[in-house]
Amino acid sequence: AETLPLHGLHVLVTAGPTQEPLDPVRYLTNHSTGKMGYAIAEQARDMGADVTLVSGPVTLSAPRGIDTVHVTTAQQMFNAVQEHFTQADLTIMAAAVGDFRPIEQSSEKIKKNGRVNIDLRLTSNPDILAWAGAHKTAGQTLCGFAMETQDLESNAAKKLTSKHCSMLVANNLNTPGAGFAVDTNVVTVLKPGETTDEPIIEHWNKMSKQELAERILTELAALR
Ligand code: C5P
């Protein structure tokens, strides 16, 4: 096993959506299925790493040989990541974390009470990737994801820098074969420039999420 590329490394992966409850029966969420993050976690295991997967609610089954922590809300995901981050040599944040949650969570089902409109007040969730970027030490490698619907490169470049990532994997939701639920992805990969503030940008061809997971992990291993 000594020859496996990630042997002896701890890898932390976040995957799936979060659910932010409004009341006991309703929640805010997004279309993430967890496929990309689970593919990365399984690939890291197969490349010899010790893997912790922090997963939001998905229908995928917990992968064998991986320490899987199930969470529901962004705050719970943040707590789980804070608990495991210091031991992680490589951290890959593929979760689609809800940016906002309802300010108040009603303990009883919210009733219509004859209303046509209701106001829903939201407050921002912690940015888990930004926290990790602010706390990482020299030996830690951090990879973020970004899903965009416009201005992919400039938005992704901003995230790479502001969240102090070693690498950022960006996809455009509107590209065929990319994004939620499908088994393939089409990504643009950004890394900090070595001599300038301009990031190094690569456009990768469409491939399965499995193959993409392997390419991402190989790339991250090479950065170490
Ligand atoms: O800014 P944006 O949400 O698009 O950034 C996406 C990246 O940040 C992903 O890697 C995602 O997992 C991570 N993220 C996070 N916590 C948040 C929001 C995003 O870890 N609250």
Automatic annotation (TrEMBL):
BP-aspect Gene Ontology terms: coenzyme A biosynthetic process; pantothenate catabolic process
GO cellular component, one term: phosphopantothenoylcysteine decarboxylase complex
Cofactor remark: Binds 1 FMN per subunit.
EC number, UniProt record: 4.1.1.36, 6.3.2.5
Segments forming domain DNA/pantothenate metabolism flavoprotein C-terminal: 6-222
Family: In the C-terminal section; belongs to the PPC synthetase family.
Protein name (database record): Coenzyme A biosynthesis bifunctional protein CoaBC
Species the sequence originates in: Bifidobacterium pseudocatenulatum
Organism phylogeny: Bacteria, Bacillati, Actinomycetota, Actinomycetes, Bifidobacteriales
Stretch of the intact protein here: 194 to 417 of 427
